[in-house]
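Dear support,

I submitted the protein below through the web form. The confirmation email said the job was done, but the results page showed an empty box. After a refresh the structure appeared. I'm attaching both so you can tell me whether what I see now is the final result or a partial one.
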Amino acid sequence: MAETSSLISGVAQRYAGSLFDLALEAKSVAEVEKNLGQFEALVNGSADLKRLIESPVFSAEDQEKAISAVLAKAKIGGLVANFLRVVAQNRRLFAVPSMIQAFRNIAAENRGEVSADVTSAHALTAAQQTELKATLKSVAGKDVTINVTVDPSILGGLIVKLGSRQIDTSLRTKLSSLKLVLKEVG
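What the results page shows now:
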């Protein structure tokens, strides 16, 4: 599993790096980032689209036709549309979520920002996100871009991944720790 993960990571880094270079040359990094986010939202919102991307059963031609139709309907064009078509032709759609994350990381690094992945039990308000960014900025010493994921299974609190550090204040983890302590006592 670790080999597969590092393989996908390597592919994602190369593709994201190439897309970033093209976006930088075209002075459209922000637009590309926005379009990638829009496509990511489409994938996360559709089980069928997710299946198309992840399944090796579909041919490159079928994937490219389907992706082209989705992009046209979503009005995503330019570099991102061309990029996703090339990815489909090369049968690398399975790595698109990792490519999007890698692109965000490269873009943030280029802006002098650090990217943090935040998992919360419920959606964060704008005020909470602003406060979290300020707190993380004081820790990292740089501006911080946060990618928030909602996971109700953590029950409460936050899980923050900032670079190689992870801060887990989730209620689920605290309850698990308490359960272990109680088992040791009894």
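Response: this is the final, complete result; the empty box was a page-load delay. Strands lie at 113-120, 143-150, 158-162, 165-168.
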